[in-house]
Amino acid sequence: MIRIYQPADCDDVLRVWAHASALAHPFLSEEFLELERHHIPNVYLPNADTWVWVTDGRVVGFISLLGNEVGAIFVEPTLQRSGIGRALMAQAKALRGELEVEVFESNQLGRAFYAKLGFELLHKRIHDQTGFEVMRLRLAADAPLQPADLLATKLDFMLCALQQAPGG
Questions:
Q1: Is 42 left (phi over 0), alpha (psi -120 to 50) or beta?
Q2: Contact yes or no for 76/19 (Cβ under 8 A)
Q3: Are strands 69-75 and 99-104 parallel, antiparallel or unpaired?
């Protein structure tokens, strides 16, 4: 289920980020990742609107928004491709309409995810801190998510509701 981030979720969010980032960003230096690990609880989370996906009482995914920009979206690798990322993105789109995100060009997993959802390239630039190229993508407010994605998201929500129901 999706709920708003609470400060008690911080360790779980850092765990999800570390696991998913290791898969998506193997090209980033340990020094940069350690700096990001410090910035997440001290800079990013206090300034972002963040929602988490909870399964069996444990945070397994999250999305952070800065206005209409997706500052972060990460899902535990073992649960990727299960609809959690789509559900988090649907939550963001419902709240903000048009969405933008920056993704490292070398992040093949992230690029495929955003392309599947219908994000389109705005421009590329060099990321100052790493020297890697990043792509700025946009999902227009009136651009529907792919029909299969919407169906999967609805099914995810229904399954979660059934699991949360008494006797579920």
A1: alpha
A2: yes
A3: parallel
CB 105 within 8 A of CB 135: yes
The Cα–Cα gap between 91 and 85 comes to 10
CA distances 25 to 29, 64, 72, 79, 108, Å, are 9, 18, 13, 17, 9
Contact 5, 50 (CB under 8 A): yes
Model-level pTM? 0.84
Q: Contact 141/98 with Cβ under 8 angstroms?
A: yes
118 dihedral zone (left: phi>0; alpha: psi -120 to 50; beta) = left
Chain centre distance of CA 82: 13
The pLDDT tens digits of the residues spanning 28-79 come to 999 999 999 999 999 999 999 999 999 999 999 999 999 999 999 999 999 9
Q: What is residue 44's DSSP assignment?
A: I
